[in-house]
Queue: 3 jobs
Job 1
Amino acid sequence: MANTVVIGMQWGDEGKGKIVDLLCPAFDIVARYQGGNNAGHTVKFGDEHFALHLIPSGILHGETRCVLGNGMVIHPEAFFSEVEGLEARGISVAGRLFIASRAHVLLPHYMDLDRSREAAMGKSSIGTTFRGIGPAYEIKAARHGLRMGDLCAEGLEERLELQLARLGSELSSAEGGKGPDIGAIADYCRQWGERLEPYLRDTDLLLDTAMTAGEGVLFEGAQGTLLDVDHGTYPFVTSSNSTAGGAAVGTGVAPTRIDGAIGVLKAYTTRVGKGPFVTELDDAQGEYLRDRGHEFGTTTGRPRRCGWLDLVAARYARRLNGIESIALTKLDVLDGLDEVRLCVAYRIDGREVREMPSRADEFARAEPIYETVEGWRDPTEGVLEYEALPAAARSYIERVEREVGAGVGLVSTGPKREETLAREDSGLSKLTSGRL
């Protein structure tokens, strides 16, 4: 797969950052195609620990170029902070980090809108990260956003004035009755534009040129399948297309040039924020998974809701994204359990359902139909050979393969890059050859 999408198969937090980092040496470019600094990717190797929010994990590999695509919304200050943090740790980004001129700027007052809207919704709030992502995409769709290439363009004040006029009283209310100063915002924008100028490119042309020359591109999304604005558990979703189809729109690459998709699936299920969660464990078992898996948000630090693996959702993600191979993460978190449960179907209004319902009200009423399988006492943490895994753990993996309809090629048995095993008969083994 020369040009490949890596996609989360749940509600995000599946461990995509680690998998992208592991696959990077097999590709020349890593391109992020949606979201903003509301996402967090964690990468660990040796004694190093990196938390990335805007910049793809590929930046940790000195020969890899990285692209922030047009489908993203980028807060300049967050970008600068991340670059400075990387360079302070010896990771140079010069000449290999590029931002799409068509990507939208996330302005500070978007975060004010985000906070005020969530507060106004009270118990009906969605549970956003307050990073301004929703308002940024809303303003983009309303056609009065500001793109990265506009930061130093003529008529900047007029564009800002039009935007602020449209936001009107809502923005004044969010800022305590005092609207933002257009002149001050314009000054910030020009300063940002000057600092960003070395990074700005026509990245769709950059990617097309690279692919035509035979270079491989790895496309990285944020969040996961079930948070996609069209195909996720609406309205408790993000504001962009986090599924594999978003990779083409979010980078300007023709869909016919993308060769395949790798799904990242956690061995259990987690969710951050509000919304229905069929397999949620609001008990000691859920606490066990949270504590064992260190399930706290990379971006917000919020505790994640935890539950058993939902195979209905995984099947949906496999179909929707065209996933051919799976990287199964956090298998080691299930170590020590006498039994493990798998949600193989839902019960909705007395009916057994094996496919994800498209209606939100039906999904909200869904109850899990579980099958219980044998757990394993022997540890899997750090195991690097498939046959060295406990028999019950191998049986669990093979059951997941049968239910989802795709092979598990990588198994993560710990948080570090090197704590990953590749099955010799899988395509992912070839992509990671020499690194595991």
Job 2
Amino acid sequence: MIESTAKNIVVTSNLRKGDSVAVMGGAHALELLEEISLECYRNGAIPMMVVTSDRYAKRVYSEIPASTLALEPKGLIGMAKASDMLISVEDFEDPSIRQRFPREKLQARQKANLPLNKLLTDPKTGKKWLYAGWPTPSAAKMWDVPYREFEEIVLGGMSVPPQTLMQIGKRINRKLAKAAWVHAWDSKGTDIRLKIKGRFRNIDDGIISQADYDIGDRGANLPAGEVFIAPHETVGDGTLYCPITQDRMSDRIVRDVLLEFRNGVLDLKRTRASKNLSALRSSFKECEKVDRIRFKPTRTRNVAELGIGFNPRIKKATGYILTDEKITGTIHVAFGLNKGYGGNSNSTMHWDFVTAPGINLDAEDDAGRTTSILENGRFI
């Protein structure tokens, strides 16, 4: 399993001979990191490994002051600049440890990493990057799912051939070809309209192709399996129900989220959740505070992405956004950054909210004609 996963990751990376590759991740995935590095060598690329651990991270966030964590990580930035590709595997064996890190220190580290984020997201000069999931018993416990089931979600999802994902993605893409608007609704509270006219439709098949690179889409996630679009950022209205998600700052589980947006802008005051609502609101406010200084216009709460999940091996929501957004029969809407795949917004925020399975989705052309894409979560 480790060898095949490493091969999938390197195939996705689409490396060239002589490429410099930074391979990063947690010590719990050391065998995988080693196999990825060896596979890079086998393909003529030159890897460099960077390894962290839960124990080290806990001590950093316990012992090191926020003022130090806010300093720019020049060595890491220098490594990224010298690399042609950055491959990241999950840092933490137990991702729940982040929930206990002081929020002010997480904010400090986020600000320190802004130059690094720019390196990865700039559509003209950005580096190629890949983020891969990796299952552990501790992560399964955090997501409240049996380990074998979680392993099937992550590794099963990663095992779907790119050719299969591309075939499914192309079928969805054809139905969107003449769409000016999309309308999604369900019985849970979702009812949204977004404008997508003239925006590029990205098919996530798990490969960073040259065509992807040329349009500025430099990154990939594994598991893959979605069609995603940057909708018009200042247009679109509605409400969206997301049964479970993960706070972007603290990793706390947020449940039963009901979002409302008007003219493309999320209304935080009208946002509801049954668990950890304050964490959700704080994350948007904290990112918006940074964005007001760094970016004009400020787009922290503007719609950034419409995604349609279609990975056939991923069928259950856990709160792990990396896999939830690929669930067949769901859509997701993100807010914040979309500069790297056809949009106009820069932000320190990018947060995907995935609907419950069973969504209905129509595409509508300029003449008002509709094409059904999903009916009660089933592709038409």
Job 3
Amino acid sequence: MNFKTKIKAQASKLKFAFGKSPIIDSIENYADYIPKPYKTVVIISADFELAWAWQWSKQKDALDLAIQKSKNTRVNFPKLMELCERYNIPITWATVGHLFLESCSSHKNLAQLANFENDYWRYDKPDWFMNDPCSNYKDAPYWYAPDLIKQIIESPVEHEIGCHTFSHIDCRDSVCSPEVFNSEINACKKEAENLNLQLKSFVHPAHTIGNLDNLAKLGFTNFRTNNRNVLTYPKKHSNGLWEFEQTAEFVYRKEWSIDYHIYRYKKIIDRAIKSNTVCYFWFHPSFDAEMVNNILPEVFKYLDSKRDEALIISSGNYIDYLNENDR
């Protein structure tokens, strides 16, 4: 660990200790957002991507990295599902639509992005789908996941399948035309409908917020942003969409001990209860195995112990509650 990394890690701890992160943005009439008799609402979402998220990364050997991230997800997934079932913790799985497929041969029917660059990716190739193996989930399990989606659907826990676009695209208005966006999302909706699923919750890949009016027209009710880490309440846009602001990411930081990770996430839950705010955790299932082996078991156990005070619910079900109660 270099000196700069140590200083950054220590600064983050100090900021947390003094209550500066996450920010607490509460209101007196919190009952408009927190159903009785609870004191907080806790939502957990996962960016469920396999190899699709990293193929155009600016990091070295991006395709190899994408495959490794996918391998991590498949190793972590059964442990995550077991934890969720042990403690009855629902997750909103923001799912890349291609993962629904058992197999594919071509995606020429989909509109594609032109070349672009953002903070995380550089796409300068002739075909967005050039890395797609056009195979099946048994021979290429890092690009398809109908087997994992089936486990989510059949779980006794009330999980939600959300949307993360069909192929993990940049959704910014300056990059993604309505034609491309609608093509991607309609492909997701088609695959979901084949499983009798209605997609309500959306997460923009790599936080590339855009096409919000199109998202509302396509029947979605909510999306997530990462402009700040905050304990607050969802905000309703004029197009009917509700915006969730993230509270914290479940991610393993080598600069912190296992015990500190556990302490920090538990303390965030305590602060959410004390401030009567909505707590929104999120994660990548490709995270370090320390998270699922040593940290989340303690965090989920603690969250379960607070069930009388904390309503643990999916994004879509919570927004249904708000809309039904004219919030």
